[in-house]
Amino acid sequence: MEQQFKKVGTLQPGRFWPLLALPLLLLKPAESRAQQGPPRTSKGRELAPVPLSTGDSLRVSLELEPDSLVAEPQLPAAIDSARLEWLRTPPTLRDLVCDRIGCFETDVPHTFNNSVMAYVTLFTARNRAYMQRVLEREQFYFPIFEKYLAQYNLPIDLKYLAVVESALIPTAKSHVGATGLWQFMGPTAGDLRLRRDEWVDERMHPEKATEAACKHLRYLYGVFHDWELVLAAYNWGAGNVQRTMRRTGKKNFWDMYPHMPAETRNYVPTFTAIMYSMKYAHAHGLHSEQLKYQVAEELDTLGLRGQAFDLRRLSRACGYDDSTYLTRYNPELFRASLPTGYRPYVVRYPASARLHLGDVDRATLLEYCQPVAALPALMQPRLVRLEGVEPFPSQQLLAATAGPRAETEEPTPRFRRVQHSVRRGETLATVAEKFDVSPAQLRRWNELPKGRPLKPGRKLLVFVPLPALAEPAKGSAVAVAAAPAVPTALRPTVSAEDAAARQALAAANAREAARMAELVEQEKKQAARLESIRQRQEVQQRAATAKAAAEARAAQLAARTRQAAEEKAARPPALAAAKAEEEPTTTEAEPAPAVVASKGRRPAPVAAEPAAKELPAPAPETAAPGVYVVRKGDYLTKLARENGVSVSQLVSWNHLDSETVVPGQKLLLQAPATEPTTAEPASIAAKVPVAAPVAAKAEKVASAQAGKAALKTHLVQPGDTLYNISRRFRVSVAELRRLNNLASDEVKLGQKLLVPQG
C-alpha cells in the first residue's frame, strides 16, 4: 500500500507541463469574448450576459431599455422636396420632359434637372389653374413683347420672363413694392425714365415698361454675358451677383446655386418650367373651351394736352356697356381720369370703336369726355384752436389789423437787373463805363476770371444802380391817421378798431403809390441816360464814317493822279506831240481812257479820238494799266492785299456777284474813270468844261465807297439768327438780306455777314 502511494505521489517531469497548460487553454476563449464586447441585437441594442449551465445548451437573450439620460436624441432628416418629387415622377415622364427641353433651340436657360422637373409638375398637374389664367392673356401681351425684343436683338423666349414676374397682370405689385408686368422697383424705374406720380405710373404701361425691360436686360447681358446669370441678376440685383462671384470665385449659376437666396435659386428653374409648360400646353391638356382668351387688337390713340379727361365716358362713347372696359388698354392710370393742366398724355382705345364715334371731331369728343363732377381736391387744413394761444395770422387778419406787414415793410430795390450781350470789340472796362459800374463788380457778378478778355456774344448780368428814393413825408401819414372819423359816413356796425385798421391801410396804400411813382420817374431818368449814351455812340460812328469817306476820297484822287501819270508816260511820242500842239491846256484835264469790265463780257476800250485812228495799234490788253488777268491760285483777298485795296472795292469796281474768280478773268485793280463822250474833231476844245461833271461823278463814287467802308464783317456765332443779328446792329432783316444777297433768313455757323459799324 505504501508502495502504491509512493507511486502516485511521485510525478514524472514530462507529465507536469500538460497539466499547467490546461488552465491557460480554458482562459483564452473567455478573454477573446470579453474583447469582442457584449452581444447585440439587429437594432444595435446590447444583450444581457447569461451564465452558462453545465447541463443546458440554450442561451436566453434579454433586451435592456436605453437610459433616457444617456442616449443621444435622434433628429428627423431634412426632406428634399425636389428630390422627393423626382422620385415620385414616373421615369417615362421624366425622360419625355428631358427630351423636349433639350430640343429647345434658344439662347435662354433650358437646363433640365430635378428642380426644373418639380416646377414642371407644379404648373402642369398640381396648379393647372394658374397656368390657364396665364394662357388666357398670352395672345394679348406676347405680340408687344416680341416686337420690342426683336427691336433690341434679344432672344424672343425672354417673353416668358414676364410670366415669372407678374403672371401677365399689368397691375401686379409685390410685397416689396415692385410693380407692373416686369416688376420694376422705384429706383430702377427712375433710371429707365419711367415716370411716376399720383395720376400715372408708367411701370404698368405695357409698351413703355417692355421697352425699359429690354434696355435693362441688354445692359445686364453686357455685364455677365450669360443668360442664367442675367436672370439671377434681374431678380437679385447685379451688385449682389457680382459680390457673390468675387467671394466664391464661381462663374456659373449652378456653381453659385448654394450661395444664393431661395428665391433666386428657384428663379431660373421656374423660368425653364414655365417656358416648357406654355410651349407644350396642348400636350398636357391645359387649353380648354371654358377659358376666356384675350386677343390683341389694333389700337387708336387720342392725345390730351392739359384737358380734364374721364376714361369711363370715353368707354361709353365707344359703345361698351362696361364703363371700365378701356382700363385694360390703359392700366397705368390710377383713377381712370386726368385733371386739368396735366402733362401731355396719350389714351389708347380699340380701332374698332371708330364706327361708334362716327364723324365726331376731336374737340367734341374731348368736351364729352370731361368729368361730370370736379375731381377731388385737397381740403384746406383746419387749425386747432387752443385756449391762450394766438392763431396763425391769415391774410384777412393781416389786412384788418396792424400785423407784421405794417411793422416790417418790403425794402425798396436799389438795383435793376439788366442782361447785356457782349459785342465785338467791347471790353470789361467799356461795359462797366456804359452802365456806370466798376469792372470788379462785373467780374464778381458774372464770375469772370481776371485778365481774360470777353468773347463776343456772351451774356453779362449787370445790376444797374438806382438812385435812392425819397421817403414819403411822415406828416401826411400822421395827418391821415389823425383825421377825425366822420360819424355820418360810418355804419353803425363798424367798430373803432375796424375804422383805425382801414385808415392805416389807406395810409399804406398812399405810401405804396408814392413809391411806385418814384420808381417810374427813376425808370424814365435811366431811359434818358441810356438814350444819351446811344446818341453819343451814333455821333462817334458818324465821325468815323466821315473819316473813312475822306480817306477813301483821298485814295481815289491819288489813284486817279497815278493813273493819269502812267497813261501819259505810256502814250506814243507822236500822239503826245500832236496833243500838245492841238490842246496844250486840256491834256491834263481829260481823264485817261479806261477799260470797263463786266461779268461775262470782255472789257471793251472806250472810243478814242479821231486823231488816234491814224496811229499804230495800241499795246495788248494785258498791258493796259489797272487791268489784271487772273492766274491759277489767285483769289480776291490775295489780290486786294497785294494792291492795297479792299475786297468790297474790287467787287464794286468789277461788278462781281460773289468773291469767286476764275483763271483768265480780267479785273480792274483801280477805280474806273468816267467815260469821255465821243465828239467831232472840231469840238475837242469844248471838252474842258466836262471836268466839273467828272469831278461830281467821282465824288459820288467816293461817297458810295465810303458807305461801303462803313460796313464791317460779322462772323456768325453759335445761337445767332438773322433776327438777333439785326437787333444787335440796329438794322432791319431786309437790309441784312440785301447787303449779303441772302435768299432766306437762314444763316450758318461761321458765315461772314456784312453789317453796319457801331
From TrEMBL:
Residues 603-620 have a biased composition (Low complexity). PROSITE patterns: LYSM, TRANSGLYCOSYLASE. InterPro entries: LysM (IPR018392), LysM_dom_sf (IPR036779), Lysozyme-like_dom_sf (IPR023346), Transglyc_AS (IPR000189), Transglycosylase_SLT_dom_1 (IPR008258). Residues 32-52, 558-620 are annotated as: Disordered. Residues 418-462, 626-669, 712-755 form the LysM domain. Belongs to the transglycosylase Slt family. PANTHER family: LYSM DOMAIN-CONTAINING GPI-ANCHORED PROTEIN 2 (PTHR33734), MEMBRANE-BOUND LYTIC MUREIN TRANSGLYCOSYLASE D (PTHR33734:SF22). This is LysM domain-containing protein. It comes from Hymenobacter saemangeumensis.
